[in-house]
Amino acid sequence: MQHFKTLSAYLDYLELPRPEHPMLSVFSATGDGFLPCPKESSPPITNDCYTISFKKIVKGDLSYGRTKYDFTNGALFFIAPRQVLQWDSSVVFEQKGFSINFHEDFLKGTELVHQIKKYGFFSYSANEALHLSPKEEKQMEAIVESIDVEYQNNHDEFSKDIIISQLGTLLKYANRFYERQFSNRKELSNELLEQFNQHLDEYFASGYLQVKGIPSIEQLAESLSVSQRYLSDTLKKETGKSSTEHLQLYLIDEAKNALLNPHKTVAEVAYELGFEYPPYFSRLFKKKEGISPTEYREKYRMN
């Protein structure tokens, strides 16, 4: 798989204009303007850059990770360094919108280098992109226009700080709009939680816990056709608990039933639930319940 270490090399590969800044490029189509057309097709590639883009695809599919996405209605999507991109010649872009690309080193020495890692949407799949209302779209475009003005001007000692500040503002708005999107999609959130629990029920009933061990969040997310981060963020917004917490609570609930069998040792219950190390099971149980598995068993017997 081809990997691009610099922004210039990545844009050259895409057959797009070289950047005004070695670590930052801004393409913005306002009024009657159009975005430059990228390379017609590409096998899987990766690079060391962040991308924030708003665009529509007239027809065809853009593959992002393992997911294809239809951009017919237009969406804002985010790509982090070293994520896999792929598309073919069937993809036709509507050349409106904007695209900001910046090398990860552009953030070095700034607060944003730490803050950007907290935004989960850089780890979302393309089908989890942010759909903007017309009002939100205008807000984003206004910020990008300010970034573009600074980008096109002669760079001085203030330019980077100003652009970094504007990028930070854009990401904060994106975070707000994602929160709105989660809130407005409660039906989907509830459905995702039901599917999550149903998959765990099926996994447990099949005996996979003893054979394959506890499933990872990545495996669970893949089985639900969503990204790991999106699954956790959706469940967190809906229930206040992350996907990891839901998995742990499910295992503890099953453990409570198993511990009521006096013929099973705590270690046997741990192995039955897919824990490779019984002490870890005991620590997790006590953390969640406030008492050890043995104490829980004794408490039940006393009652």
UniProtKB/TrEMBL annotation:
Keyword annotations from UniProtKB, A to Z: DNA-binding, Transcription, Transcription regulation
SMART domains hit by this protein: HTH_ARAC
Pfam families linked: HTH_18
Record bears the keyword DNA-binding: yes
Ranges for domain HTH araC/xylS-type: 194-299
Keyword Ubl conjugation on entry: no
UniProt xrefs under PANTHER family: ARAC-FAMILY TRANSCRIPTIONAL REGULATOR, TRANSCRIPTIONAL REGULATORY PROTEIN
UniProt-recorded name of the protein: AraC family transcriptional regulator
Species this chain originates from: Algoriphagus jejuensis
